[in-house]
Amino acid sequence: MDFNVKKLVKDAGAALSRVVQMTEETLGTSEKTELDAHLEHLAERGNATKMWTEKILRNMEAVLTPNPGNRIEDFFFEKIDKRKPNRLSNLEYVGTDMIEAGNDFGPGIAYGSALIKVGQCQQRLGQIERDFIGTAANCYIQPLRKFLDGEMKTVSKEMAILENKRLDLDACKNRVRKARSMLGQQSESGISPEVLLDQAERELRVAQSEFDRQAEIVKLLLEGVSSSQAGHLRCLHEFVEAQARHYAQCHAVMQDLQRELAGARQPSPMLRVNSEDVIELNSSPTLSQNSSVTAGSAAYVTATFDTDISKV
């Protein structure tokens, strides 16, 4: 493989110089060039936007897909650009079990029939939930993820470059100060201090120019991050509308189920005769004097039954 030896040496020297500069700044033995107030403010807002967007995205994904294993599986399919598995929701699994249980118990009995109705309702709720999850992912989660993977990743990359340019600039400033302090002294390298100072100042001008240019690039990108919140606001409105539709549909389905179950409920019959005497279910019936019994035949008692429980 063809290597550019000079470039490798130059890059290694620059990296070493940055490490030395950073160490001296940490120890307090070297000055640090600060960003201008406007750029510093934009950088703080950019970092806050990145932090909160990442947190909201994680929480939204956890709400829409509570199972961590499913989230990992979905992430894997996205990375390999494959279609996500069309898995059933938990409500749909519950609904399927209820329907099977109702058919097993018998749809002709009250409990079996109710299980089938409730199970079918759970399946409808599960489908509504899956539709909502898909809509929320398209209108809110995907734009946020695209923002983090696109704009914010570019900003982070350019901010890292700006920090390197800043370290290079401060290292050049240190060399200029050192060269000025050696004026009038004998140089160990045999090069006059004036020549060393002139070289250090040229490097400083180049470093300052590169730092200023990179600072402008970062400033423009960070201003774009602030303006992107308008797009996030539209996405948030779309998510709220989707969530409102979701809960309205769920409420309508549950109301229909309640009416259906209430209509299937029948009052329990009670036994009552027309006279003031009430025949209790657990007591033995006695024959009145007017009751006629024929020898060798069954005895008959004439009675009227009423299902009105309030009159008992």
Descriptors:
BAR_dom; 71% helix; disordered C terminus; 7 helices; 0% strand; coiled coil; 312 residues; rod-shaped; single chain; BAR domain-containing protein; mainly alpha; AH/BAR_dom_sf
Secondary structure layout:
Layout: H1 5-27, H2 37-64, H3 68-79, H4 90-105, H5 110-181, H6 193-227, H7 229-264
Coiled coil: 145-217
Pfam family, one: BAR
Protein name: BAR domain-containing protein
Please explain how this structure is put together.
It comes from Cardiocondyla obscurior. Pfam families: BAR. InterPro entries: AH/BAR_dom_sf, BAR_dom. One of its GO terms (cellular component) is cytoplasm. This is BAR domain-containing protein. There is one protein chain. With about 300 residues, the chain is an all-alpha fold. About 70% of the residues lie in helices and about 0% in strands. The protein has helices at about 5-25, 35-65, 70-80, 90-105, 110-180, 195-225, 230-265. Helix 1 (about 5-25) crosses helix 5, helix 2 packs across helix 6 and helix 5 (about 110-180) runs antiparallel to helix 6. The termini are far apart. Residues about 270-310 have low confidence and may be disordered.
